[in-house]
């Protein structure tokens, strides 16, 4: 998998220091209500399409670009589903990163799903009742995309209340 040049430039200076990076994760639906997944080359597991915004790139622009680059599907972003900070990751080479994911609901508007780069082993549309094994976070993101709930984020306690023994709202 290609590491973006801007990350390589940062790593040259920062070494394996923990980097806090933005990520975009897309729940892409077609007109039949199927969800688009890729089998990742790095893990061999099925996952939602995801990637990193380039410097100066808006999250929606990054989402549309990543979907097209990885799957050959043209898509539009419909709405933000959630903002979520993941646990830190340590890569085989010792580099450490932690991603804050902006999860977006998207709709396919063209193209034929196929492996379109070296990041995927397979790309397919799946009916919701025929999903391959997925982790609980990915399943939760798909479920959230099916509802009209407001954008989800981890709540924070009101300033000062936690210090006074009040529970977080």
TrEMBL record:
Pfam family, one: NUDIX
Keyword terms of this UniProt record: Hydrolase
The keyword Phosphoprotein is annotated on this UniProt entry: no
Organism whose genome encodes this protein: Streptomyces polygonati
Alphabetical list of InterPro entries matching this protein: NUDIX_hydrolase-like_dom_sf, NUDIX_hydrolase_dom
Domain Nudix hydrolase: 19-150
Required cofactor names: Mg(2+)
Identification of the protein by name: NUDIX domain-containing protein
């Amino acid at each position: 998998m290609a590491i973006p040049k801007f990350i390589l430039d940062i790593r040259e200076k920062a070494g394996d220091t923990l980097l806090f990076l933005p990520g975009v994760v897309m729940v892409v639906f077609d007109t039949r209500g199927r969800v688009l997944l890729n089998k990742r080359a790095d893990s061999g597991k099925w996952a939602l399409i995801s990637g990193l915004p380039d410097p100066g790139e808006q999250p929606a622009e990054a989402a549309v670009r990543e979907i097209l680059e990885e799957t050959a599907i043209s898509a539009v972003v419909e709405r933000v589903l959630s903002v979520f900070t993941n646990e830190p990751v340590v890569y085989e080479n010792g580099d450490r990163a932690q991603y804050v994911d902006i999860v977006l609901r998207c709709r396919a508007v063209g193209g034929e799903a196929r492996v379109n780069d070296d990041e995927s082993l397979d790309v397919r549309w799946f009916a919701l009742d025929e999903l391959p094994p997925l982790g609980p976070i990915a399943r939760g993101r798909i479920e959230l995309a099916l509802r009209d709930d407001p954008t989800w984020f981890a709540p924070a306690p009101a300033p000062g209340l936690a210090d006074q023994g009040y529970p977080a709202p």
